[in-house]
Amino acid sequence: MSEQIIASARAWVLVYDDVNKKWIPSGTSSELSKVFICQYQMNNTFRVVGRKLQDHEVVIDCAIPKGLKYNQSTATFHQWRDNKQVYGLNFSTKEDADSFGRAMLYALDRL
Ligand SMILES: CC[C@@H]1C=C[C@H]2CCN(C(=O)[C@@H]3CC[C@H]4C=C[C@]5(CCCN5C(=O)[C@H](Cc5ccccc5Cl)NC(C)=O)C(=O)N43)[C@@H]2C(=O)N1CC(=O)O
């Protein structure tokens, strides 16, 4: 009854380098990852978790706060920010982006 996966998609996980004004891969190398939206039912919280397909390195693990502004920039690139950084998901397919985006909106709707 703990954590429920409500979405999974393939994407390159990026963070924005504000100094050099460019996207850099999150983690030690730029590799395709599996990204999930996980729901904790007992306290109705959600988070985005991502792990590299190859070595399972955790490349993202961030809470989805109530009121988050989730920006679907393009059909395959979605992004959002927290007080520390800007996260970007460069999805491998439009379908992956669509299903992840729908699950994100579902989560934001329930918070
Ligand atoms: C993987 C390469 C990548 C692929 C796709 C395209 C799509 C557009 N795009 C960007 O980076 C766009 C272009 C302008 C730049 C300027 C600033 C940025 C960067 C930092 C955040 N941001 C905001 O616009 C945020 C968004 C937001 C709105 C609302 C809520 C939350 C947020 Cl985060 N606006 C605020 C006000 O925060 C930004 O996304 N930017 C990506 C891109 O060019 N490339 C190619 C490359 O980089 O070579």
Output the keywords.
49% strand; globular; alpha+beta; single chain; binds the ligand CC[C@@H]1C=C[C@H]2CCN(C(=O)[C@@H]3CC[C@H]4C=C[C@]5(CCCN5C(=O)[C@H](Cc5ccccc5Cl)NC(C)=O)C(=O)N43)[C@@H]2C(=O)N1CC(=O)O; eight-stranded antiparallel β-sheet; 111 residues
What do you see in this structure?
This protein is of the alpha+beta class and 111 residues long. It has one helix and eight strands, in the order E-E-E-E-E-E-E-E-H. It has one helix at 94-110; strands spanning 3-17, 22-25, 33-40, 45-52, 58-63, 71-72, 77-81, 86-91. Strands 1, 2, 3, 4, 5, 6, 7 and 8 form an eight-stranded antiparallel sheet that branches. The model has no long low-confidence stretch (mean pLDDT 96). The ligand CC[C@@H]1C=C[C@H]2CCN(C(=O)[C@@H]3CC[C@H]4C=C[C@]5(CCCN5C(=O)[C@H](Cc5ccccc5Cl)NC(C)=O)C(=O)N43)[C@@H]2C(=O)N1CC(=O)O is lined by residues 14, 16, 22-23, 69, 71, 73-74, 77, 79-81, 86, 88, 90. Residues 14, 16, 22-23, 69, 71, 73-74, 77, 79-81, 86, 88, 90 line the site of the ligand CC[C@@H]1C=C[C@H]2CCN(C(=O)[C@@H]3CC[C@H]4C=C[C@]5(CCCN5C(=O)[C@H](Cc5ccccc5Cl)NC(C)=O)C(=O)N43)[C@@H]2C(=O)N1CC(=O)O.
Summarize the structure.
This protein has 111 residues and is an alpha+beta fold.
Overall pLDDT level: 96
Look at the helices and sheets and give the structural class. Answer: alpha+beta
Cα shape: globular
Proportion of residues in extended strands = over 45%
Bound molecules: ligand K0K
* Largest sheet features: 8 strands, antiparallel
Oligomerization state = single chain
Percent helix, as a range, is: 10-25%
| Helix run count | 1
Total beta strands: 8
Low-confidence stretches: none
